[in-house]
């Protein structure tokens, strides 16, 4: 039987009668017109729901005892505008904190310092305009951070940039803010697993062909952040009218940006070559296979070896190393396969074949999996002429709208389901190495 509690004066002790519902280790006080947090919360409380109330200030004394078992705290829709710098001192084992849909305006330096175990932080739909650069610095276990629908004007690059980023952060949502400028070069070099969860649509970005190139690449790679909100990426055209257009329309009459084309990488004989296995999901078990389906294994007399980060090192590169290299990446939820075709070319010849990536959930229906694999093909760019970027290796008509759109972004290039274009040119060179 659930017990209820009628709210009396502000700060009254919780006794699980009438209004607040106490069910096992869950205490739910949602929509009860509370102005303060009830005191004397049970030490065994694991989930505390205070959403949809009128708790406008969260003071340091909202709990006077350490709630060591509390892992979910819900405070959304309260009109909350003040957080004490010591508000979370006694709840340092929180894993999920919802502060969304309030009136918070700034995030100070030490506000979240005790929350070293937090995994998910919801701050969307506030009035946040200022974020201290170290506000999230101690949150070493944070995986998802939602900052959309605020007044943020600076992109928090430090959260994702190498050497300063939160290592476990795989989703950062800064969409629907007031960000005008983003360091596109910095974003492009991020690992795919970060870009996959990096959402910055619905911001007043200034239109630039580099922005189009970045998002076109992400879309062709089928990163969630670009595919899920393709129509919501907009920018402001130069000029006094400040016309807003879709970023993916910049290849048309608006700015006539060139269709996406991946830059070639060059590898030289007798030097060291590293092939990346840049997967959309992190912490995957990666296995490489050399041409002829030979598994790369430690201790064997091979010129190739798998590095700690999952990439493949070939040293020295020889002409007989040409062929298809396969990276098999596996996790409990997803499998990803990246193919890199390395083919020797004499100096001055055209670029060699593209690499590919397909993403297939391990629980997928075998028939669907076969359909996805149908797109796996290696083909020279000259063979695509007249196809407008659509690849039909079996001669059948492809009705996949997403693939058709991806193909239109890279006319004259081959593409594949969740394709990643990564070209290598193998050249003879007596000096230097991989450029």
UniProtKB/TrEMBL annotation:
Listed GO CC annotations: membrane
Topological relation to the membrane, as annotated: Single-pass type I membrane protein
Biased composition (Acidic residues): 395-404
tRNA processing found in the keyword field: no
Primary location class: membrane
InterPro entries in the record: AMIGO (IPR031283), Ig-like_dom (IPR007110), Ig-like_dom_sf (IPR036179), Ig-like_fold (IPR013783), Ig_sub (IPR003599), Leu-rich_rpt (IPR001611), Leu-rich_rpt_typical-subtyp (IPR003591), LRR_dom_sf (IPR032675)
Subcellular localization, as worded in the UniProt entry: Membrane
Keywords assigned: Cell adhesion, Disulfide bond, Glycoprotein, Immunoglobulin domain, Leucine-rich repeat, Membrane, Repeat, Signal, Transmembrane, Transmembrane helix
Segments of this protein annotated with the region Disordered: 383-404
GO BP, sorted A to Z: brain development; cell adhesion
SMART domains in alphabetical order: IG (SM00409), LRR_SD22 (SM00365), LRR_TYP (SM00369)
Family in the record: Belongs to the immunoglobulin superfamily. AMIGO family.
Protein name: Amphoterin-induced protein 1 AMIGO-1 Alivin-2
């Amino acid at each position: 039987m659930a017990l209820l509690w009628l709210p009396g004066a502000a700060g009254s002790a919780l006794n699980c009668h009438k209004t607040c519902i106490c069910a096992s280790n869950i205490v739910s006080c949602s929509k009860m017109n509370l102005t303060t947090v009830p005191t004397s919360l049970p030490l065994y409380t694991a989930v505390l729901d205070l959403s949809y109330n009128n708790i406008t200030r969260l003071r340091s004394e909202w709990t006077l005892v350490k709630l060591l078992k509390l892992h979910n705290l819900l405070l959304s829709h309260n009109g909350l505008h003040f957080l004490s710098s010591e508000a979370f001192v006694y709840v340092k084992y929180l894993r999920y904190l919802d502060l969304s849909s309030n009136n918070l305006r700034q995030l100070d330096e030490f506000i979240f310092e005790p929350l070293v175990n937090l995994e998910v932080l919801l701050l969307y739909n506030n009035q946040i305009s200022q974020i201290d650069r170290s506000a999230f610095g101690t949150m070493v276990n944070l995986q998802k951070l939602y900052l959309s629908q605020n007044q943020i004007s600076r992109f928090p690059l430090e959260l994702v940039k190498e050497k300063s980023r939160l290592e476990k952060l795989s989703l950062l949502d800064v969409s629907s803010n007031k960000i005008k400028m983003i360091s596109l070069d910095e974003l492009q070099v991020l690992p795919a697993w970060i870009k996959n969860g990096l959402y910055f649509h619905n911001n007043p970005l200034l239109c630039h062909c580099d922005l189009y190139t970045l998002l076109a690449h992400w879309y062709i790679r089928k990163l969630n952040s670009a595919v899920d909100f393709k129509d919501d990426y907009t920018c402001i055209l130069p000029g006094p009218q400040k016309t807003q257009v879709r970023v993916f329309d910049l290849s048309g009459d608006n700015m006539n940006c060139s269709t996406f084309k991946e830059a070639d990488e060059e590898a030289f004989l007798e030097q060291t070559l590293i092939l990346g296995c840049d997967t959309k999901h992190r912490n995957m078990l990666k296995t490489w296979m050399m041409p002829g389906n030979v598994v790369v294994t430690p201790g064997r007399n091979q010129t190739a070896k798998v590095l700690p980060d999952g990439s493949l090192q070939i040293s020295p590169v020889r002409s007989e190393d040409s062929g298809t290299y396969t990276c098999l990446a596996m996790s409990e939820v997803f499998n990803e396969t990246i193919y890199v075709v390395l083919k020797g070319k004499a100096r001055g010849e055209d670029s060699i074949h593209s690499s590919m990536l397909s993403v297939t959930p391990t629980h997928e229906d075998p028939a669907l999996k076969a359909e996805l694999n149908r797109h796996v093909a290696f083909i020279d760019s000259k063979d695509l002429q007249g196809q407008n970027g659509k690849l039909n290796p079996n001669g059948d008509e492809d009705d996949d709208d997403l693939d058709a759109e991806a193909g239109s972004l890279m006319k004259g290039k081959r593409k594949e389901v969740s394709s990643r274009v990564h070209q290598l040119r193998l050249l003879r060179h007596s000096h230097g190495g991989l450029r």
